[in-house]
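Weekly puzzle thread! Below is a chain. First person to post its structure in token form gets bragging rights.
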Amino acid sequence: MRRKVQVVPYRQQWEADYIRECSNLKNVLGNSEASFYHIGSTAIPEMSAKPVIDIMGSIKRIEEIDPFMLELQTMGYESKGEFGIPGRRFFQKGGNSRSHHLHIFQQGSVEIVRHLAFRDYLRSHTEEALRYRRLKEQLAEQHPYNIEAYMEGKKELITEIEKKALRWYR
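Winning reply:
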């Protein structure tokens, strides 16, 4: 059976969940010069979201994450490689009931700016955030067991918002 596309109302606990997990990641990575950011819909106040905390890490050289694979696995993270974005290391935590996504990029990656611009734009433009929230809720209702259709349905609006966000961010 396919996993249900679950989009829930914003939960204030998501920020605390991010802070706790980020602290655990920093403990595992020790002296590496990694920076972490809360991204995705759980990082946007009042945004409905799949209840999965997205964490983006920035590291000096992407290869520096590789020696920590066993520790990340011990924390419950499963490595997915680049998972569709060249230069990324992507991890999922929580098995079929995913709780966290970890995206690691090398410092200077355009992907870092893209993710932060999108997040900050929606935090600052409540009317755009509301449009996005309503679309996500509608798609989750229309496609409750089809994550591909849900993702495809968001693509056009995400692209539109992302273009605005990048102009605004710069």
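Puzzle host: Confirmed. Bonus trivia for everyone else. The first strand starts at residue 35 and ends at 39.
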